[in-house]
Amino acid sequence: MSEYRFERECRTPHSEAYLIIAGEERLGRVDLHFTPSIVYATVCVKQNLTQEAIDDLIDVIDEELVMSADVARDDFIVTVYQGREVGVFSDEDFEDEED
How many domains does the chain fold into? Predict the structure, then answer.
């Protein structure tokens, strides 16, 4: 398996969000949502990852983040998007434009 590292951005009682990092490069983000029987993941990665690399990443997410959460599950459903990051925006960005 490839060397991935995850940096948690936020956590709620039923979800978590992580940056996905390989070496010094930020590859994307994964959002996990825990229900009583299913764990859902939304993975957003760069365009240049191969299907093999995506499969490997899903395995690592399952092993390091989902299984370690100690939540019973019947299924792990993953939706993957490939693209590029356009930016990260907050209310402060829009408040500056209004002034």
Answer: 1
**What is the span of the domain harbouring residue 78?**
5-84
- Compute CA distances 63 → 11, 20, 57, 94, 99, whole Å: 18, 14, 10, 39, 47
Does residue 49 lie in a domain region? yes
**pTM of the model as a whole:** 0.84
- Asked if residue 76 is part of any domain, the answer here is yes
Residue 55 phi, psi dihedral angles, 5° rounding: -60, -40
Ordered mean pLDDT values, 10 residues apiece, the chain (99 residues):
86 95 93 94 91 94 89 91 86 70
